[in-house]
Amino acid sequence: MTTSQNTATSYAGxxxxxxxxxxxxxxxxxxxxxxxxxxxxxxxxxxxxYC
Length: 51
Hints:
The protein contains two helices and no strands. By secondary structure, it is mainly α. The longest helix has 9 residues. It is extended and about 40 Å long. The mean pLDDT is 78.
């Protein structure tokens, strides 16, 4: 096992992200998204702002 695999394995399942806060405004979705609905899926985050 390589160092990167060992590190990934040591953190697997130990730290959970908090759920999204209620009342957020969602774009391009019919309903609010939950982390449990995204579990096991590939998720791409796109952070942008108006400058």
